[in-house]
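Now read these lines:
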Amino acid sequence: MAGEINIRAALSFNRELRAMYFALASLAWLTGTPILLAAFLVTLWMLWNREFSSQASALLKTGGSDNG
């Protein structure tokens, strides 16, 4: 039960973090289209690196351990 609560909390945290990234990027809308596009692309890049290019993601893909 504690594990399930932890999983649900982590999923909720990740969703909120993504929403915060895009909310900050959307604030660039007030400054104009080119800056909005740049902020959106930077946000996508940050999320891509966090989700798919991290060390944790590499370990999950290979199924290996980080013990050496």
Summary: The chain has a mean pLDDT of 81. The radius of gyration is 16 Å.
